[in-house]
Structures are given as C-alpha cells and as structure tokens.
Amino acid sequence: MLAFLTRRLLQIVPTIVLVSMLIFGLQQLLPGDPALIMAGEERDPAVLAQIRQQYRLNDPVPVRYLFWARGVLAGDLGESMRLKSPVASLVEEKLPVTLQLGAMALLFALGIGIPAGIVSAVKKETAWDYGANVFALWGLSTPNFWLGILLIFLFSVTLHWLPASGYVPLGEDWRQSLGTTIMPAFVLGNALAAVLMRHTRGAMLQAMGADYVRTARAKGLQESRVVLKHALRNAMTPVITLGALEFGTLLSGAVLTEQVFTIPGFGKLIVDAVFNRDYAVVQGVVLVTSTIYITLNLLADIAYMLVNPRLRG
Amino acid sequence: MTIIVRRLALALLLSAAAVGSAAAQSNLRIGLAEDPDVLDPTLARTYVGRIVFASMCDKLFDIDEKMNIVPQLALSHQTSEDGKTVVIKLRPNVKFHDGEDFNADAAKYGLERHLGMKGSFRKPEIAAIDSIEVVDPLTLKLHLKQPFAPLLAQLTDRSGMMVAPKAAEAAGDKFGLHPVCAGPYKFVERVQQDRIVVEKFADYWNKDKVHIDKITYLPIVDSTVRLANLRSGGLDLIERVLATDIKTVREDKKLKLSKAVSLGYLGLTINIANGPKADNPLAKDARVRQALELSIDREALNQVVFNGEFVPGNQWISPQNPYYQQKFPIPKRDVAKAKALLKDAGVTTPLSIDFMVPNGVELRQVAEVVQSMAAEAGFDLKIRLTEFATSLKQAEEGNFQLYLIGWSGRTDPDGNSYSFQVCNQPLNNGKYCDKEVDAAHQEARVGADLATRKAAYEKVAAKVLNGGGPIIYLYHPQVLVAHTDKLEGYVQMPDGLVRVVGLTLK
Amino acid sequence: MTMTVVSADIAIAAREENPWARAWRRLRRRKGALVGLGIVVLFIAIAVLAPWVAPYDPVATSWSLVRKPPSWTHWFGTDEVGRDVLSRIVWGARASLGAGLVSVSIAAGCGVPLGLLAGYAGGWIDAALSRLVDAMLAIPFLILAIALAAFLGPSLGNAMIAIGITATPVFVRLTRGQTLAAKVEDYVEAARAVGNPHWRIALRHVLPNIVPPLLIQVSLAIAGAIIAEAALSFLGLGQQPPSPSWGSMLNTAQRFIGQAPWMAIWPGVAIFAAVLSFNLLGDGLRDALDPRHK
C-alpha cells in the first residue's frame, strides 16, 4: 500500500507537467489573435504591435512555455491580459466559490443518486424503479441552462423565495450564501445524480446476483443487511470512478450553470478567458483544476482498495 | 425515496427563502450584459466598460439627447479660424476622488496620458493633437497638427475622461484596478465577473443632483436571466433588453422601458479585395452587390427578428441623424430587379457565397433571414457560424466573402465610417479602396460646420451606397433599458450609456 | 473452491447456446426493453425517412408565420423565422441521433480496449495510459472543441469526432476500474490456472463480466453527446444553420422561453424520449447479456 502510494504520488508531477504542456500547445492551436481580441473595436496597428510585444505573442511557443514555467516555479502565474490583474489573485477569488458549489452539488448528487439507485435495484421493475429512472433520465436529458431558467422563473420571479442570481460568500453570511447557491447546486447535482443513480442501480443488480451475496443470503442474513453491507460495498467501484470523474468536471465544467445563475466561479473565468484568448488565465486555472482533479483520481484509486481489499497487490 | 429527497430539498429552499429581500437603502443595482474589461479610461476598449465609467469618470464634454456637445468638466470650447487651435475653459472647484484639484495641469496630464501611455487605445482618437498648452489654471489650449472636426466628439467619450494625476502616476498600468477620476461616484471594489461597487463622492462638483448613495454593477450575460432578476426585484435597471422581450416588460406594471436609437449599426461586410477569397462576382461587380442589397427586405427583417422595434437603415448613421443623406433613401426590396442585375453581370445562379456569422442566437437569426431572402434572387449564402474571436482573425485575413458584423457606434459620423471605408484602415476588413472616397473623408474631417461636412459625406455616400462600397448596412439597434418604477428621472441617450446624475430611487 | 466450480459450470453452460440467440430470447421477455427498442427503431426510421415523414421543408422560412403556437397546419408550432417545428424535429433526428451514436461508438470503441489493456496488463502500461487519461480529462472540453473545430473545419461529422474524443477517457477509466476488480475474481483466477492465454482471459472472461456498467455508460453518454452537440453547434462546430439539430433548437428556444415555449418543449421531449429509450434498451441488454443472470 505504501509503495503504491509513493509511486502514485510521484506520478502526479509528470502528469501535471504533461497537462500544462498539452494546454499550452492546444491554446496555440486555437484560431484567433489575442491582440486583436483584446483591442476589440480599437484596432490601431501600433497598439496591436505593442500588445504583441508586451505579452511575447511573437516569440516561439517553446520559449513562451519556458517563460511561463519559470514564472510558475517562482510562484507567479502571470497576468490577465484582459483584466490586468494577477492570475493568482483571480484563482484565489474564484476557488472557494467553485469548491462550495461543487461540494453542494456533490451532496445533492450523492443524496439523491445513491439512495435512488439502491431503491430502484432492490425494487426492480416496480413503480419505484420506473419512477426513479424517469426522474433521473429527465435530469440527464434536460440541459443545465434550461433547468436553471425554469427554477429561476419558479422560485425567483413567481414565488420570490430566492434571489435569481448573484453570489454571497459563505464567510459573509452563510444563510444568504446558501440562498444564492442552492439552485445552481441543485441543477449541477441533478445531472450528476442521474449518472450516479444509473450506475448504482446497475452495479447493485450485478452484485446482488453475485456468488458472495448468494452465499450471504444462504447464511440466512437479513435482506437489508445483505443489500447494504455486501452488495453495496461491491457495487461502489464504478460509482467511485464516476463520482471522482464527474466532480472533476464540476471544477471547470459548470460553465452554463454558472452563467445562468451568475456565480463567479472557475467555469465562468475559464470560458471568458478562452473566448478572449487570455492565455495566462486559462493556463493558470487549468493548472489548479488539473492538480485537484488528479489528486481526486488518486483518492478514487485508494478508495477502490479500501472497498475491495483484494486489489492490494 | 427520490420524492422524500425532493421534499427535503424543497424544505431547504423554503428555509433560505427569506434571503435576498433585505436590500440596503439607496443602492442602485444595474444589470450589465457583459463583464467590463480593465477600468482605465486610457486602456479600456469595451462598450460595457463605458457604461461603468459613466458614473465614475466625468469627461471634458458630454452629449445631450439630440447629440449636441454640452459642457461637463469643461465649460466652453473655441476653435480658431484655421481650425488648428482649440481653447478649452475648465470648470472651477472640481476635485478628483482622492481630493486632488482638477485644473489645466491635471487636464494636460490626462490628455498626455491618453496620447503617450504604452498600449493606449485613445491615441488614435486624438492623434490630431500636436501639443497641449496650459494658458492659466482654468484654460487649456490644444494645438492640432491639422484641423480635425471629430475632436470635440472624441472628448465626450473616453478620450475626454480625466484621471487624478497623482494616483495615475503612482499606479501606472495598474490604475484600472482602482480608478480615481472626477465623476459623481468613486470606486469601492470590484470582484471580477461578479460585481463593481461605487459610492457617492461627497465633493462632486454637481453633488446636489446626486441622490443615490451607492451603485452596484452586476454583469449578467444571459438576457432572459437579466430580465428575470429585474422582475424578481434583484436588480433595479438592466441594459440591452431583447426586442422580443419588450412585450414582457410592458406587461409588467412595475417596470418601465427607456429607449433611444443607437449610434451603431449592423451590416454585411463584403470581401472586396482581401486575399484569394475575393475572387468572385460579389467582390468584383457592384451590380451583384446591389442585387444582394435589393434582395433584402429590411423592414421584414426588423419585424421577424426584432418585432419591428429596431430602425432599418442603409447608411452608417441612422435616418434620424443630422448627417443622414436624404438623397439616398432605403432601397425597397425588388427581387425582379435583383435578378436582372445578376443577369446583366453574367452571373450563373445560384451564386454560392461563404457567409461568416459570429456565433450568437440573434446574429444567427438575422443571417438565416437574410439567407432565405437572398435565395429568392439567386444567391446561395452558405452560413458559417464562427466563434467570435476566431471570426475577428478570419476577417482580418480575408477568410470570408460576406461577414455579418456590427459596430457599437460613435458620436461623430467619422467614427462610424472612416476606419471602415478608407484605404488600409484597420477595420476595413474587405480592403475596399477608392481614392475619391478617401479624399471626401479628409474633407469631412477638416470641415468646420455640419453643412460642409455633410456635403463631403454626400460624395462618400454616392460612391459606397447602393452596392458601390464594402458594407450593406441593414439596421440600427434600439438602445433598450428597462428599470423599476421606483427609479425616477432616467433619460436614455443614444450612446447607450447609463447616466446616473439626477436619478432618484424611491 | 466450490464457488469456482459453480461459475465455471455457468460459463460452460453459457457457451452451449448461441449467446446472441439467448440474449434475444431474454430481451424479448422484458417489456421495458421492448418499449425502448421500439422507440429507438422508430426514431432511426424517422431519421432515415425524414424527407418523406416531414410535412414541410425544415428550412423553409415564412415571415407571416413567426413563432406561431401549435395549430392544425403546424402541429408543433413554428420557430423564430417561421419554420415548421415538427419538420425540424424530424430532420433534427439525423443530426442528434447521429451525434449520439457515432460519437459514443468512437468513445467506447477506443476507450474500452485501452481500459481493458491498462487494467489487465497493469505495470508501466497502466501507469502511462492512466496518466494520459488524467491529462486529457483535465483539459476543458471547450478548449479541445474549439481547437478541433479550427483544425478539422466546422461540420457535423467533426463535431461527432470531437465529442467522441472527449468522451473516451471516461470509458478508459471505467473499464480499467472494472477490469481491476474483475481480474482478482475467482473465475478469472480459475481460467488462468487452466492455462488460458492472456488475450483470451481478457476477452472471454473479463470483458463479459464488465459489460453491464459499460452498457450503462454507453446509454448515459448518448444523452451527453446529444446535448454536447448543442453546445458545439452554438460555437460553430456542429450542425450548420439553417439545418436543424435538437440541441441547437433547444439553444435557440432559450431566448423565447416566455413568448414561444413550444419551441423548447418539443426538442426537449424528443431528447428525453431518445435518452429514455436508449437507457431502457441498455437495461434490457444488461440483463440479457449478464451470464450469471437467469
């Protein structure tokens, strides 16, 4: 176990370097000229030339990568071309928002998805099963922006219960903070719940037909104990994989939801940066999200071993 | 089970319900359609940024509803006979937000910063200024390289915004993170992509007319959500209401709508001579361009996409503008004539055209309507949706035959035409070039009064309209601002900016 | 040891009947699966027969029929430039089902073998593949999509490729995780003890046992792909206007939610019905293919 952990921890560094190089390369493939976008309607050739020089846009890609990497090693993530503010401070500003939203969404997803999956597996082909499936698939086939707008119309415009958009930090006022994040968290969690529900259901069905569950049943154990202890434990492998993957995408993929609810998180930051070809911001944010993401996947691997001790080779 | 969970979720929602209703007194919350860029008048370049500057940074001059130039930080202006010097008298007893006095030295600093700062986007706007002379503490004399009629109009916009010299000197190119100007409100804080907060400036020169304590600008990109926020009471004013949402606004008794014809336009830019893609009949033959224009029914376009709320147009300025050329009215749709012109030009129909359209629901809708109208005359417009940043580059490189693109508009007609129609100008993506048009534009730039300049523009119009030039102008948007009835005194100006002096919030 | 014998027996028994015939026999017994299959077949038929099924030309505009509610002449109403929504749904089935099926085939076709390889082989192959997958997953979809659009040129086919590529890592990781778990099961150990070659163990003993979660992922990924196509068509990579896809119809409808809700409801219903039927079919297949299921 210890050897495994050390090996995996050592692999994190090259993976992150690989990600940063991939992103850097891909960004150069993106069509469009950052200077042109930055200038917008004010397209004076002299100013364009000046911007290109200031941000080293004329240098070869490897040179620019090395400059960037040197900055990162010295603790400097660079500066946003569009906003003229340091990338590190942008990340610092947005990270708590994204983590809060992601954690709340995950709570919704786990709270809805796993129990619903268990119930629909245990009560297979009953009204419970069909109901849970239809609900889950509806959540999956409804785009987030769409569900978001429906919620805003219901809870903000019609009922006046919740603010339609905006964000209040947790530290400022936790009640207001929950009020502003509950709808987007539900929207994000709902789609994720569908995925978790479907996989929990499938894995449970598979596990309940497996030998060890039959053995447990044959031993005369209570059915609820069989389900929760033996079947669920073994059903968790795909759920853990998908859970870690999907939480990772919440970090930078909550774009549309953040946009609809005007939550100033990573998703919004990265989309604006991509559309404005604000390279340093994209680079910095992806560096942070990929680190979190890769760590999560490591945790998922460790979790496999915990639920399935036989994997400790 | 899921139902129980949903109930729990609902209960949670209910417990959080009281939140959000307790708004602080006298805080005007404005919903913006985009997140502004850097808040430095010298380095800023977005339209939405100008909306925020309107409360923070006063300018030397301003415009009124009829687009006359009126005093703001300056009291008067006097242009010499030869048009090469402009004397500006400044308003006395004006202070910047940090307490520094505004005077001729400060104004000279501000203008020189626009002219000399690295990466300044203002330099091209006021490049006609050769030197700036301080005559006395309240008098400034601008020496011009040559007469430049649009200069005063430039001073009603960002080029006329004055920054506090000491603060600007100390902050350098980071000034935009904490701008210090001489407007009615001073900067408090900004959370990127979330909010910009400004508060009333106690020593503002016109403080008796400032009644609201605080303004919060909130960028909310989605127009449906922006309106939903206004209706739910989360915002007091929103800009860029969709024309198709006007009905919703009018049906809500608590909302009011303000509008003004915008200074901008939307048009079809034709690749005349930019690279190999210009090798086609549309680029080479004015008759084909005229045929395309004649195939389009601007009024129907306006009805279909904008519920008839926008203003159809065929020139770079709207028909209400004093510079509009009445001799060149909007051509009526005439498919028969369009077909005849195509036949004359020897074009085999359908003529396939690469039509680049930046992504966005509204532009796509316009493109689809134009496409189906042009099809009747024999054009096969192949719509190519392109991400906006990509489209800018492709336009520059000439990777288009037809390009649907708008312009946000400037006060002076020069700002709506020069850079698009004169040879080798930066926004002339189709590389249109005609020496006579260039000469007429120079004439308009030095012209001393409206009549002279309008006469010069008539020569331009004769050349570039009705298929001659690089752009087929389609319509002028309506600036649409909706606000609650608690907000009083709001007047919409054609530049689309939200002016806050004189407003009260009940 | 008894258990090993039992699963070996089942495995042998399973090999006696043609597995496809058995699967079909089992599938027919499941109502849900049959309904799913029926709808999938219906949708595919509609997509293929679009020119004959659609009542109107899906791109024909009409200035007098802008955003009209459903009526006898236009059952699903008309859209923002006066086109018939029903005809667009019918034609949109081509783009949307295509996006769903093709991209998921790409993703599963690349992802499953790689995942199997990584999980079964272990060692440096696993480490290298897993880190590559981590790196790919860490790249935001948007950047990859725009870069691909620029590289390949905008078209529906390239959108399918882009969606397929971005969905691949999930299949790799899922397959790998399942393979790791299956590898240590008794029946695999038994197969190995008998001296089967590795490729045979991987394909005949591991793969069949990990199919169920993969089937679920396939049916879920189809939904994701249909919606992703909408996002891509908005960016200009994907179905080019005026040709319809369900996702892009839904995208456009967002602006008219107050004035013309029917513009959103029908594509929404179509996506939901397609997703539901693929999942029902997936469930049925899962049961039918499960070697241990009676």
Question: What brief labels describe this structure?
Answer:
heterotrimer; A: 313 residues; mainly alpha; 13 helices; 0% strand; globular; B: 506 residues; alpha+beta; seven-stranded mixed β-sheet; six-stranded mixed β-sheet; 16 helices; disordered N terminus
Describe the structure.
The complex is a heterotrimer of chains A (313), B (506) and C (294). Chain A contains 13 helices and no strands. Chain A is globular and about 80 Å long. The N and C termini of chain A lie close together (8 Å). The model of chain A has no long low-confidence stretch (mean pLDDT 84). Chain B has 506 residues and is of the alpha+beta class. Helices cover 32% and strands 23% of the residues of chain B. Chain B is built from 16 helices and 23 strands. Chain B has a seven-stranded mixed beta sheet with strand order 10-11-12-1-13-21-14, with helices on both faces. In chain B, a hairpin with a 2-residue loop joins β8 and β9. The longest helix of chain B has 17 residues. The N terminus of chain B is likely disordered. By secondary structure, chain C is mainly α. Chain C has twelve helices and no strands. The N terminus of chain C is likely disordered. The two termini of chain C are 22 Å apart. The chains are: A mainly alpha (313), B alpha+beta (506), C mainly alpha (294). Chains in contact: A-B, A-C, B-C. Chains A and B meet through α2, α3, α5, α6 and α7 of A and α1, α6 and α13 of B.
